Amino acid sequence: MGRFSRGACARIVLAWLVALEFASVGLAAAETGWIAGGQQVSVRRAPDVAARVVGFAAPAERVELFETSGGWSHVKTDDGTEGWVAASKVQTDPPPTARAAAMTREIEVLRTKLAREGDASRQLRDMVDSADAKTRAQQAEIDRLLAAQDAIRREARHREWLTGAGILLAGMALGAILSRMEGRRAGPQRLRL
Question: Mind listing the pLDDT tens digit for each residue in 8-32?
């Protein structure tokens, strides 16, 4: 068997799990803060003026703020230095320089989006113009075909009228001829009343 009993191993594993849970809760609870004022601030090992200085934080530097207690704030700087600074030197609202930098980044993002949207708008406008040109060409072709169809119909009616007139004239002429021929054979016809 090993050096530890099962119960001891279980307690060690449980202790590690609890420690990891507290570490993750501590990380999740961190919020963003900034160093206030116009001077560099000392980052100390403990929340005490007499505690050893482990690093420095520049004015307007972004820090992770873990907790504030007794006039001290537990922070972690961008370079990874973790320690305590006077709570009066930490603010949760970004300083004007940080806000201006964020706004500048946002403006650049918006300009990029605007340029993309402008390109897409121009492409759509070109597509609409092209579709309009095709529609006008198709409408012109439809108008031409309708005019040709009307001309064909008029011509066909004209032929029909001429054919009908020809049949009528032929019938009249045939009737006159037959009437004369019948009149010669029978002699004068009398009307009977």
Answer: 767 777 777 776 666 554 444 689 9
DSSP state of 70: T
Would 171 be classed as within a structural domain?
Answer: no
Collapsing DSSP states into helix, strand and coil, what is residue 32?
A: strand
Domain span holding position 88: 6-93
90: pLDDT strictly greater than 90: yes
CATH of the domain at 57: 2.30.30.40
- Tokens at residue 26, please? 């501590």
Cα 78 to Cα 93: distance, rounded to the nearest angstrom: 17
CA angle, 165 as apex, 163 and 171 as ends, to 5°?
A: 105
Number of domains in the chain: 1
With H, G, I as helix, E, B as strand and everything else as coil, classify residue 62. strand
Closest CA to 139 of 147, 125, 152, 126: 147
Place of tokens 């972004």: 62
Return d(Cα 172, Cα 152) in angstroms, integer.
30
The pTM is what? 0.43
Q: What is the pLDDT of residues 131-169, one digit of tens each?
A: 999 999 999 999 999 999 998 888 888 888 888 899 999
Residue 187 lies in a domain: no
Sheet holding 72-77, edge to edge: 53-57, 41-44, 82-86, 72-77, 62-69, 31-35, 90-91
- Token pair in block for residue 188: 């004068």
